[in-house]
Amino acid sequence: LLRGDARLLVDKTPGYTLSMDVLRRAEDMFDEPRYVHLVRHPAAVVESFVRKRFDRLMGETGDPLENAERFTATSVRNVLSFQAELDASRFHSIRFEDLVRAPAKAMEAVCRFLGVPFDASVLDPYAKSRMREGPGDPDVFLHDAIDPTRAGIPNGASTRPEMALLAQLLGYETLP
């Protein structure tokens, strides 16, 4: 990604959120890095984590639901703690639900935050196999466009108290 004559590094690695040391490392490596936090309701994150068995990719054993909830809780708490350490001008949160329901508005805000011109190609992330390189969503080949029906909380999502607390910390009202 280019901004003027400068190159920008954009890294999307959810696993970084499991370690405050890893999150803080960017502060040592870059001059005033900016952070975009894609926020999704914790119950939806847990449901997806369990359904796709991400615990196996992480080498976890035991109950997939407990692993998903632990991963989600650690990630949310670390990101919120890290955000509190930064100047607010260097951190931008965007809700997954807003992104899939109104992608142009959401991505225009992200581009403004990053100081890069808006490019309509961000609204078609699956074009030219852009989303199909490297590890990531195992269902990526099932998508060909941003799908607003993916907003919301899937049936069967966790309703445990810890997930309700995380949802509130992220500004969601309640679990279903």
Describe the structure in your own words.
The protein has 176 residues and is mostly helical. The protein is built from seven helices and four strands, in the order ββαβαααβααα. It has helices at residues 20-29, 42-51, 54-57, 64-85, 96-101, 103-114, 161-169, and strands at 2-3, 6-7, 35-39, 91-95. Strands 1-2 form a two-stranded antiparallel sheet.
Topology:
Blueprint: E1 2-3, E2 6-7, H1 20-29, E3 35-39, H2 42-51, H3 54-57, H4 64-85, E4 91-95, H5 96-101, H6 103-114, H7 161-169
Parallel strand pairs: 3-4
Antiparallel strand pairs: 1-2
Helix content: 40-55%
SSE ordering: EEHEHHHEHHH
Instruction: Compute the number of strand runs.
Output: 4
What is the 3D form?
A: globular
Alpha-carbon distance between the two ends: 39 Å
Oligomer: single chain
Portion in strands: 5-15%
The biggest beta sheet is recorded as: 2 strands, antiparallel
Low-confidence stretches: none
User: What Rg do the Cα atoms give?
Assistant: 17 Å
Q: How many individual helices? A: 7
Mean pLDDT: 81
Q: Give the class from helix and strand content and strand pairing.
A: mainly alpha
Quick structural overview:
By secondary structure, the chain is mainly alpha-helical. It has seven helices and four strands.
What tags apply to this protein structure?
mainly alpha, 8% strand, two-stranded antiparallel sheet, two-stranded parallel sheet
